[in-house]
């Protein structure tokens, strides 16, 4: 009932297509990482979901309804879009109170979220005196006001100190454990891998991947090995003969694809090639993500050339 | 119709930003201060002039109070356009017509309440200094003028509010309206019986005169100002509905 459903969603700004026939679903009970480079369309998709921007075509629904149709929306959906989106001359407490009251929530709920986000002692201060990290916490406090079943956070760890980053990570995991639908955007893969169960990856407004984090990691990590020898020419010949893809490096090094270090070691021993260094290289998550988004960029620019 | 919850929320927004609440308070404070200042110093001397209109003169300070009213209407709306605060507001109240109606109702109600107090206050306090020239609320047209002056202030606040929804900036609205009211309207306005009679401030201020001259009467003049405000609000509502937030 509380999933997010995006169907064939498209948004043009002037001549620029920010979101391009996007279709995906976000399910409750897990943290879904919403990934993509800056400008991939993550924030636009969130704004479309919240009815702030109008889609050019397609639909964006929450629990089967458009956001604007929800009578007291903060009780269903909590969103952090832009931590600056609050009038700087208001106190944190008044800012939250104005939001709460409009959705039939009381002042006691404001105090609760101020405490929960660690802003209790500064609730009476004007927002202009807040650091980016404190504004980020205030935005999260606003998102939690209505105890919503769906939570959408756009780059929540921006500006947070390391302690804050751990706090937000734990918060998101807890929200998902409680059975809520949690969608969290980020442009940082390694950060996202620390909290997300599921991934939706965008590139240039299009869906590149929609799969469990584990599957993404496995599908994207390929074994490769790094080896250094005193006789690079002989090793190169051997690798070519055995059908490996390998690239020479400086100082007698080779980078060999789709192979484990022990295979190279055994092979070199058979041939009597002296090895001075040998190790497995793991594709990092960061690399996997960059590969994926780079492919999309290449694909997109190739497509444009054809036109 | 906006629910009371949304109205309450809008009231919190007005009272919690100093520049907005300050402008509202300034409508009363500025008008009273200038009334006392002018009435106590030049009031009787001016009234001695054969051409003097005692009733209109009693509301002289509304010229300054209206600047505060315009600032109130403009800043109450422009706070939504600072730092993208509007996005937060619309996630809380996604029905834009409901949001607009609540904000405009609050601006109108607060403007009217403060406007009526200001207008009656200026009249009654000002007359204390007028000695033999003093008139009371029983004088012809006085009650109508005092009431109408309050309505006029509320309408100017709403006019500014509508324009601010359209232009999304109090600075833009104030830099159009204030020079307009201070300069254009004064200069052009002396050519009586022209189209200038239909300018929002000229038309509305007819309610402050004992006898309205020209094509508009006191109430029809105020209605012209109301039409200006309604047009500005309609344009603002349309812009809010149509634009991406």
Number of helices of chain B: 10
Major sheet summary line of chain B: none
Uncertain runs of chain A with pLDDT below 50, 5 residues or more?
Answer: 303-307
Low-confidence stretches of chain B are none
What CATH calls the topology of the largest domain in chain A is Rossmann fold
Judged by helices, strands and strand pairing, the structural class of chain B is mainly alpha
Strand order of the largest sheet of chain A: 5-6-7-3-8-9
**What can be said about the biggest beta sheet of chain A?**
6 strands, mixed
Taken as a percent bin, the fraction of beta residues of chain B is under 5%
Helix content of chain B: over 70%
Give me the Rg of chain A, rounded.
Answer: 24 Å
Largest interface: A-B, 33 and 28 residues
Helix content of chain A: 25-40%
Work out the count of structural domains of chain B: 1
| N-C termini distance of chain B | 22 Å
User: How would you spell out the order of helices and strands of chain A?
Assistant: EEEHEEHHHEHEHEEHEHEEHEH
Would you mind describing this structure in some detail?
The complex is a heterodimer of chains A (307) and B (245). Chain A has 307 residues and is α/β, with parallel strands linked by helices. In chain A, 37% of the residues lie in helices and 27% in strands. Chain A has helices at residues 42-49, 92-102, 107-116, 132-144, 162-177, 189-193, 213-220, 232-241, 261-271, 285-306; strands at residues 4-13, 16-26, 30-35, 57-62, 77-80, 150-154, 181-186, 198-203, 206-212, 224-229, 246-248, 253-257, 275-281. Chain A is elongated, with a radius of gyration of 24 Å. Chain B is mostly helical and 245 residues long. Chain B has helices at residues 4-15, 18-48, 54-58, 62-78, 85-92, 96-127, 142-167, 170-189, 200-204, 218-242. In chain B, helix 2 (18-48) packs parallel to helix 6 (96-127), helix 6 (96-127) packs antiparallel against helix 7 and helix 7 (142-167) crosses helix 8. In chain B, 47% of the residues are buried. The A-B interface holds A 47, 50-54, 67-68, 70, 73-74, 77, 79, 81-82, 84-91, 94-95, 97-99, 101-104, 142 and B 5-6, 8-10, 12-13, 16-19, 79-80, 82-85, 87-95, 244-245.
